[in-house]
Design brief:
Blueprint lengths: L2 H10 L3 H9 L12 H11 L3 H10 L2 H10 L7 H8 L5 H10 L7 H8 L5 H17 L5 H5 L1 H7 L6 H15 L3 H15 L4 H14 L2 H11 L1
Helix pairs in contact: 3-5, 4-5, 5-7, 7-9, 8-9, 9-12, 11-13, 12-13, 12-14, 13-14
């Protein structure tokens, strides 16, 4: 399917009320049809994996075409240069999280970029680093604990960044690591307690929220069951 045909399809699914609703949640792309994620997944499924088409769709610069690009891109074909070019264009949280979830997490550069991007100043590049940490902890079932233990000092280091989309991503990464298994749960809680001692309102929020979830009966029971 040509890009023009895909855009026609997206336009037919346009939803002005959805666009107004997205803005309330900080989803503020410059150009959008307001197509839902489930509908985008249906279109992506019909297209199949097609990396060349993904690169074309990304250049079209619509919310929907960029998200579709992340859904049909081939992780094996993604280069480090492509990741750097795309991450520079992240300008709101949804595109950041969708690309990390759908594509970047599955690339050979995922762990490397998670560490690199967390040290960057740009808001959504930095968020992408922590989003990668969270998605890797959730999705990479074969990874060893040591790979996630490397993330914990970085989470602690950056815990004073009070930008809303950064602090929420830091908290998200910490919680996901702590929900992976019993050993990482203990280390994540220890890290959260260290963060709690930092003289920062943001750090305290990140730590307290993580500790509340990671020490909850629901999470502890789930981890015990998983450990059997």
């Amino acid at each position: 399917m040509q890009v023009s045909k895909i855009i026609e399809k997206l336009e037919s699914l346009s939803n002005l009320k959805a666009i107004e609703g997205m803005a309330k949640f900080g989803i503020t792309p410059k150009r959008t049809f307001g197509v839902s994620i489930p509908n985008l997944r249906k279109i992506a499924k019909s297209l199949g994996i097609n990396h060349e088409l993904a690169l074309e769709l990304w250049q079209t610069n619509l919310r929907e075409t960029k998200i579709l690009a992340s859904m049909i891109g081939d992780p094996k074909s993604v280069t480090e240069e492509q990741m750097e070019n795309w991450v520079k264009e992240f300008d709101y949280w949804e595109i950041c999280d969708q690309v990390c979830q759908n594509l970047f997490t599955y690339t050979q550069f995922a762990y490397q970029k998670a560490i690199e991007w967390c040290g960057r100043k740009e808001e959504f590049v930095k968020r992408a680093g922590f989003a990668l940490m969270a998605w890797l902890a959730f999705k990479d079932k074969k990874a060893k604990n040591e790979q996630f233990e490397k993330f914990l000092p970085i989470i602690k280091r950056e815990a004073t960044d009070n930008r809303n989309f950064i602090k929420k991503a830091i908290n998200w990464a910490l919680r996901q690591i702590g929900k992976r298994n019993i050993a990482l749960n203990k280390k994540a809680i220890e890290t959260a307690k260290e963060i709690q001692k930092i003289g920062s309102k943001t750090a305290k929020w990140i730590a307290q929220d993580a500790i509340k979830e990671l020490t909850s009966d629901a999470i502890q029971e789930r981890l015990k069951e998983r450990g059997k």
